[in-house]
Each structure stands twice: as C-alpha cells, then as structure tokens.
Amino acid sequence: MLRRVGPSLRHFLLEKNSRAGRSSCSREAKMSRPVQARRLEGIDKNIWVEFVKLAATYSKVNLGQGFPDFPAPDFLTEAFSRALSGGNHMLHQYTRAFGHPPLVKVLAQFFEKLLGRDLDPMTNVMVTVGAYQALFCCFQALVDEGDEVIIIEPFFDCYEPMVKMAGGTPVFVPLRPNPPKDGKLMSSADWQLDPAELASKFSERTKAIVLNSPNNPLGKVFSREELGLIAELCVKHDVLCISDEVYEWLVYDGKQHIRMASLQGMWDRTVIIGSAGKTFSATGWKVGWVVGPDRLLKHVRTVHQNSVYHCATIAQEAVAQGFQRELMLYGKPESYFVQLPKELQQKRDWLVRSLDGVGMKPIIPEGTYFLVADISQFKSDVPDVPNSDEPYDQRFAKWMVKNKGLAAIPLSAFYSEAHKNNYSNFIRFCFAKEEATLKAANDILQKWKQEKTSS
Ligand SMILES: Cc1ncc(COP(=O)(O)O)c(C=O)c1O
Fold first, then answer.
1. Which residue's CA lies nearest to atom 7 of ligand 1?
2. DSSP codes joined into one string, 283-341
3. Atom of ligand 1 nearest to the CA of 156
4. Could you tell me the distance, in angstroms and rounded to a whole number, from the CA of residue 451 to the centre of ligand 1?
5. With a threshold of 0.90, does the pTM exceed it?
6. pLDDT band at residue 28, thresholds of 50, 70 and 90?
7. How far is the CA of 132 from the centre of ligand 1 (A)?
8. Residue 4 has pLDDT above 80, yes or no
C-alpha cells in the first residue's frame, strides 16, 4: 500500500503508525487491506468442522464422519510395528518424494492387474497424504483460471472449494432419484444422471469432470453404461476425468466396481485417486495415491513437489506390505479386499433393517460404508422454519445429536450452495462400525419411535 503513495505522505503515515504503536503497545497493528488471499473468498465455511464438534460434544453414538471404529487388520498394524521398530532405521528418514519405492512398485503391480496394462511405478503412480492431497494436487495441476469442472451432485464436499481454489468454475449436474414403483426400498442405483442434462453441461470451457464411484454419500456404484456415457462425452469434448475411487473395494451384492480408466479412450485422460485409509480401514494413516498416464502425472508431481513433497515413510512401508499381501491373496477368500466388503454388507443390512423398522426409509447403498435415509416421517419432531436459510436436514441432524445423542451428516452438505435445499429430507449414516455401536444406534432409534407413537 505504502509503495503507491508519494514520499511525503508515506513519511506522514509511517510517523502516524509509529506514534500509534508507542501510545498503545497492546493494540494490534491493523492492516488496511484484506489479509487473506482472494482465492479463499466464499470457501471459509466447512460443515464438517461444525458437525465433528457437535458429535464430539453431544453424541452417544457417532455414525457421522466416515471412519471405522473397528481395528485395522492385524497384518497391517504388525507391518507398521515392524517398520517402526525393526532393524531398518532408514525408515525413519525421508524416502523418495513421489512415493516410497516399495509402495509405488506394488501399487503399479496391483493396478496393472486391475487395468490390464503395463505401468511404470516411477511415472504412473504417485503417493500422497491421503486421497485428499491427491485431489488437491490434481485440481491444482490440471485446472486453470476460467476452466469449468463438472461435478456430479451429491458430491464429496471438498471438490467444490478445490476447483475454486485452482481458479476454475464448478458446474453441477445432479443424480436424480427415480423412486421404485412397487413400494420397495430405494437403492442408490435409482439415483441416475439424465443423459441430456449431463451432455448439456459439456462445452469448450469444460476441462474436467469429477467422478466418484462408489459415490460418497449415496453409495452409488456407476454402471458400465453410465460410465460409458460419461466417457463418450469426455472423448468428444476432450475433457479429463478426475476419478475418485477411494471406496473401490467396498461394493456389495456381487456388484463390480468398473474403473473409468479401463474404458476405451479413457486411460490417457484419467487420474485415479485411491486411499489406504479406506482400503485398509486406517483413515488416520493418511496414505493415498494417484495413478495415471505420465502426461498428466508429471504435472501432478510438480504440485506435490512444491507443496507437501514427502509423505511419512513408515506408513508407506506398512501400506506397501499390506498391498504385497493382498497381491498374493488376490481374489482368495482370505484376502482383506474380499473379507471387508462381506463384513460391511452385513452391517449395511443390519442398519437398513434398523432404519426401516422405525420408518427412517433407507436408500440401500451398492457400495461405500455410507447409507442415506429419508427423515420425512420424523418431521413433526423438528418442525420446519419457513424461509430459513438453513436446510431442514441440517437442523434435523443438529437436533438429533443434541436431543437423541445420535450423530449423522445432513445430505445437503454434499450439494452446492445453490442446490442444498433441493434434497434436504435426508441424512447420511456411516455403518463401518462395531456391532455394539450399531446396536446402540438401534436402541436410540427404537426408543425414539416408541416415544413418538405414545405421544
Ligand atoms: C470420496 C472421498 N474421497 C476422498 C476422501 C479422502 O480420503 P483420505 O482420508 O484418504 O484423504 C474421502 C474421505 O472421506 C472420500 O469420502
């Protein structure tokens, strides 16, 4: 600021400031211009901060945030202990910046199998601090000022601010619910894109589309036909795909997770994002990765090298050992990637029955460890406030945790500001929980239901 004023005025201002400083030592120097960067405008609020705090303060049972409350598998924690206190003291030092060699090697081997193509561990794989950093690096590396990025609603909430921080403009397209006519419970497969609406969002300004399959929050696993439609549009309009596949192993009822990069013409334009936290039930480790063609990854590496650069070596070593085990047991019943979805499917079914029993209609997820439920029948307990800016489901979830001790996340948290009131009769539960936790949630719901019927 001072650079722009003439020398005498500058002298006067400096004098004035220093006099003010002397007369009131305790008063803080105020800058006359905003201290924050312009790119932070409008993205400072984050619903998770509020809901995590509410859950910590009030919840007896927390089915809100997405993490398991059961232990990570023994083979993984044992690998971590070996890495920590085994003989190799170099595991306490920096490792290769773009990924610990044993981890990128085994990830390349694994994805070669899954994608049916040769991969170079050094150029086709990069390790990050969780999938979150992988997403950040991809948006920063691939999205420019003025670019449009298509985001399918409902979406994992960080996509929108990350696109904006990169200077891009998010363009939203909703999954639209088609309730089954036969009175059956809705499935996440009943939430679909309208092909014409999706096509209308692509233009010469579109740089990328974000795909999240299996999808958080709905649990939708996109079908080959749906992926084919998106792929066709990407190829036609020369658009990239940021494919968030952190729940790739969590699919149920014999469904198959299809990888966008395996579709015709998509490898060259897709970055696959994964998470050891979700894969091995160890979200606190924050090990993630990006897999893709070098022509995209070389730019993703540039962002990584100028931001985080190194990820914790010991956690990478242990995850590498976890993948080596899984590679050996691939497709076998002892594989964690076979066992975990089996166990989670039982938990899902249990929660479906529990919610259905009290009239909080569940939408049966085909994948992930989340379940969205319709709260319409509970509306009388938390009356709507007409013309309120706050979506109904937010108020409901806050009321529920404060009054019933049960934490969940409002579905509106997964919609853009403009659309957050469109689907505000739903809340999301996480069912990656011990049996006792799910039973405790069921007790709360049953008691609530009894109170409702007797009142
Ligand atoms: C869809 C999706 N992507 C990415 C992440 C972030 O994963 P990580 O914990 O590995 O950073 C999450 C976490 O909940 C998620 O649900």
1. 131
2. GGG--EEEE--HHHHHHHHHHHHTTT----HHHHHHHHHHHHHHHHTTTSTT-HHHHHH
3. 1
4. 37
5. yes
6. low
7. 6
8. no
